[in-house]
Amino acid sequence: MNLLEVKNVFKTYGSLKAVSGVSIEVGDGEVFGLLGPNGAGKSTLISMISTLVKPDNGEIFINGNRVGRNTKEAKKVIGLVPQEIALYPTLSARENLNFWGRMYGLGGNLLTQRVDEALEVAGLSDRQKDRIESFSGGMKRRINIAAALLHKPKILIMDEPTVGIDPQSRNHILETVLKLNKEGMSVIYTSHYMEEVEFLCSRIAIMDHGKVIACGSKEELRNLIGDVDIINLDIANADKQIEDLIKPISGIQKVIFDNNKLKVYAKESGTILARLISVLDSAKCKIHNINIEDTNLESVFLHLTGRALRD
Ligand SMILES: Nc1ncnc2c1ncn2[C@@H]1O[C@H](COP(=O)(O)OP(=O)(O)O)[C@@H](O)[C@H]1O
Ligand SMILES: [Mg+2]
């Protein structure tokens, strides 16, 4: 049996189907990505896996333990880094970790040792005596991750761990995920940032409107759409209306203009490039830069839903 098995799980809030028939499997040593726009149902799914929310229907097995039956055993192997920071602002970093450690049943020398290790992982040993309220958002997030590691879980579940934090902490968190995984920990990494999921994850489930709309390795997901490229142009003298001028060009699937950047999704980008440039030229747009990206998870999402991930 896989470390995590989610079988046809549902959760509705009133008439809203937050999670609607999701099945996923995560194996030992995997970094599994859960990618989807805001509102897709990622946090609801995570809450059910973490045993905080009871599914209306379906089954979840963690390390062979069925959630709802052997919940206590299941809980022992998971570490949750929730979307919201769960720390006491007036306590120091170490005091917060001590608190969480005791919640996991740790004490004495073992607790001290685990807190030391967790502070090390967070890269914040030197700030351990400072109050959380003096920390940046990114540092708080790193302590939140440290708290989830104290009981040495087999599987770490992270819910949007890099939203709204500084680039330095973001990089630290991404590196931490890779390091923990190298040491044998499985990770479920939830995000609406395609680049992070693409960078970290060996397999990815793409969620939208409560459903998994695609699941597989990066390669398998890219193969879903064939040969669509993304042409990125930096242009001046343009406004949103430029989208309507470009859309009719044959072979173009989608155009997004934002902040002097034009993103064009097209089959066979080579053949439409000349036409694209001529349309921009006749609209008196100045082109500063052009580059062509390979297909990525963003284009997979667009292909499957007709929307951009961050619409
Ligand atoms: N406790 C709740 N009560 C009512 N609606 C909720 C609750 N939790 C989530 N939802 C709704 O369920 C949908 C999925 O939310 P969520 O799981 O937070 O998505 P994501 O994490 O992908 O952004 C959203 O429309 C959200 O408003
Ligand atoms: Mg969420």
Summarize the structure in words.
This protein has 2 domains: 4-219, Rossmann fold, CATH 3.40.50.300; 227-294, Alpha-Beta Plaits (2-Layer Sandwich). The protein is globular and about 75 Å long. The longest helix is centred in the middle third of the chain and has 16 residues, at 167-182. The protein is 35% helix and 30% strand. The chain has 11 helices and 14 strands.
Which homologous superfamily in CATH is the superfamily of the largest domain? P-loop containing nucleotide triphosphate hydrolases
Report low-confidence residues grouped into runs of 5 or more: none
Query: What is the CATH topology descriptor of the largest domain?
Result: Rossmann fold
Mean pLDDT: 93
SS content category: alpha/beta
When the domains are counted, the total is 2
What Rg is obtained from the alpha carbons, in whole angstroms? Answer: 22 Å
Spatial strand sequence of the major β-sheet: 6-7-8-3-9-10
What small-molecule ligands were found? adenosine-5'-diphosphate, magnesium ion
Number of helices: 11
Supply the CATH architecture of the largest domain. Answer: 3-Layer(aba) Sandwich
